[in-house]
Each structure stands twice: as structure tokens, then as C-alpha cells.
Amino acid sequence: MSKISDSIEAILKQMLDENEGIAEFTRNELAEKMNCVPSQITYVLQTRFTNGMGYLKESKRGGGGSITIRRVEFTSPKQQLAQQIQSIPESLSQQKAYLILDNLSEQDVIDERISKIVKSAVSHQALHKVPNLIVDQVRSDIFVNILLVLYQQKHAGGKK
User: Fold this and answer.
1) What is the pLDDT of residues 20-54, one digit of tens each?
2) Concatenated DSSP letters for the chain?
3) What pTM did the predictor assign?
4) What is the span of the domain harbouring residue 20?
5) How many domains does the chain have?
């Protein structure tokens, strides 16, 4: 993962933590602060702050074009897993799968041990014999099936 993307994600999560789950900013101001191009901000928003990961985004045009991110509070880890399962695309890259797992682990939906096991199961190394044309679809199927098993468990991977 890109260090600048990690830094942008960290700043946005810090803003969310400091402001009761709401972060408001302009893409250009944040890009200037992070010394990057605005498209890098867009990339981070599209890949690391998705609905399935528990975030709502609003964009306002005009007057500088502000962006608001809201952290969705799930009533339970099981509810968050259900939301995540529904939002998994039919084709899933290793990077995207890892981001989802990191988010679920960070929010105590799954523990770090489970996250590492799932990462191993959906890694490039585990799927190296799958043809490149379908590897991301196979990864998505495996990932969804693992999350479904965790969903079916009473405490979602040991976490209440």
C-alpha cells in the first residue's frame, strides 16, 4: 500500500475520531496539506471509506466543494459483517480484500488472528495457480464464503 494513501487515511480517521465520527474538508485543502494531488484524495475516499466499510460520503459542489465523511455506527459486529458481505464486488483484488480485513479488525469485528488467516487464504500466493483472468472473481468468492462463516458464528470470530 502506498505510504501517502496510508497517511491520508490516517488523517481522515483522526478527523473522524476528533469530531464524533464526522470529518468535513475540501479535497484541494487536504491535498495541499498532504502534499499530493487531489486525485490521490479521491482514490483514498473510493477505496478506504466505502459504505461497506461503515462510512457515508457526501460531496458539495460550489463554495470550495466540501466533502463530508460520516462513520456509520453498527449495532453489532454481526450487522457490520452483513453489510460488508453485501458490498463485496464480484471481482476483488488482494489489496481491496486486505483493506476490508484491516477495517474489520480495526473496528473489532474480527480479531487480528482471523484477519491474518483470511489474508493468507485470499493472497496472491494462495491463488497463484488460478488463471489471471478469473483470480479476482475466485478471491471474491472465497472471501465472501469466509465472511459468511464468520457471520454465522454467534460472536463473529470471537468478538462480541
Assistant:
1) 999 999 988 999 999 999 889 999 998 889 887 88
2) --HHHHHHHHHHHHHHHHTTTEEEEEHHHHHHHHTS-HHHHHHHHHHHS-TTTTEEEEE--STT-EEEEEE---S-HHHHHHHHHHH--SS--HHHHHHHHHHHHHTTSS-HHHHHHHHHHTSTTTTTTS-TTTHHHHHHHHHHHHHHHHHHSTTTTT--
3) 0.74
4) 3-71
5) 2
